[in-house]
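The authors assume throughout that readers already know how a fold can be written as discrete tokens. For illustration, here is how one protein appears when written out as sequence plus structure tokens.
>
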Amino acid sequence: MYYINADKIKIDNYNIVIELNNLGYMGVCFDKHIETNKFFLFQQSNDYTKINYFSSDEKVTKLIQFLYKIPGVGETIIRQLLTNFDLIELQNVIKNLNINLIIEKTNLKISFVELLIEELNKYFFDIKKTSKDKKVIESLKKLGYKTNQIYNAIRHVEKSNSIDEYIKNLIINISSNEI
């Protein structure tokens, strides 16, 4: 990862032009407020495109780099996520498993948002979905509950030792929220 101390900066609708020593660099920047001339750079290229991502926060460029490692994530999804959430907001949404807010703001499919939440939980908080969690979620899906109902219930129910007890508590929570 590189950084640039820019001489001139122009940002227009998430597109950025940085000038350094009479050389111009174009790219994408999701920063809401620019308080420094130091920008971290992540370059993503494939056979068809080359995109420069700039941010004054190194954590944002590292997040973008991580997101590209998730299957199915590309420029469009990164743009949808980072234009709707700043880094702190995204961390809070992921921590709270707020699947509805992500779907509402980005129009991504539930199954893909579920994958994003799982991967970003690993990235931000080093929380991995256990086999018990996966079994419970799959069981509730097979019973006909919606993914967003399940994740809302998981946020509010304490995990118990037995899978049966955990599923029972989740179903009770889902049922009480539907009334």
Observations:
- Residues 4 and 39 are 5 Å apart (CA to CA).
